[in-house]
Amino acid sequence: MKRNIELVVLVILYMLLGTFIINKTDERSIFMLLYSSCLYISMGAIFFANLYFLFSLFQKGQLKRYLLLNLFLLAITYFTSAFLYASWMADVFKNKFLVSHLFHPTIVQDSLPLLVFVLFFSFIYAGIKHLILARKFILLKKITFYSIAVIFIIGAVFFINMQMDLKYKGDQQTMFIEHQYQSLDEVLQLPQFRSKVVYIDLWYSSCSPCIQEFQHLVSLKEQLKGKEIAYLYLARETSHPNSRQRWINAVKKYNLQGWHIYMSKPLEQQVWKTILGNQQDSTTAAYPRYLLSDKNGNLVSYDAKRPSTGKVVIAQIKALL
């Protein structure tokens, strides 16, 4: 009876947490939503399978069987999640899905560590629960100490990795504007944008349509090379815990040469208030969005053409040069 009550409570808490996380997901691509849901369900499957079934094998000394079943469970959950992530990437970049994509570094990095961590956590949780019930408090103290030490080390590794990513300051082609401005007009009056046409890209790191457009920027920039034009990327803050780190990594990954601002909430609100106030047919703040300002720093297009339109957007920009 107590076991059933514990199971029901844990499942309800897990479902509530999952609902909150999925609802906070910024990405609205069906594949990414399915991936997020699948990964969360996979983590739950690993946790509950170990807590209520597999840990008993460890207690009985069936270590080989315990490890093999966990490896099987880990493989099934990883490849299911990886398939959905790879499908999202194929959809974004319009590529053919390949089995090798399941081992793409980005997919491995975003999925496998979480699954392994949950596997480790479930083992520790089940072990501590068993020791408490068996009243083996001396052993419990030792295991608790070592568990905390391992979790601290893992946390330190992730923290150091995040700090190293955040230290990236760009180069001569990729530059960051650190000051938090309150309006886009203030930004466009900066020296680097004076007497230049500015092509403004509003995006965020997990926006699949935004990412899809990046591949067309290379051709656009090449055809406008040497012209008096600057590229400004305005990135929104997402609900992801390490949103800023993901933003910087995306800038590096997609080689987004130009000026970058990680928008504060007031700036984002002001930008969209300006856009929607000048676009009668626009009622929602949908990403990506492209703007154009002339050489005097005045916004002249609140819904500029996307990079994928090719000659159309180039003609729109050249008209202002």
Automatic annotation (TrEMBL):
Residues 183-305 form the Redoxin domain. It is found in: Cell envelope. Its main location: other. This is Redoxin domain-containing protein. GO terms for cellular component: cell envelope. InterPro entries: Redoxin (IPR013740), Thioredoxin-like_sf (IPR036249), Thioredoxin_ResA/DsbE_sf (IPR050553). GO terms for biological process: cytochrome complex assembly. Gene3D superfamilies: Glutaredoxin.
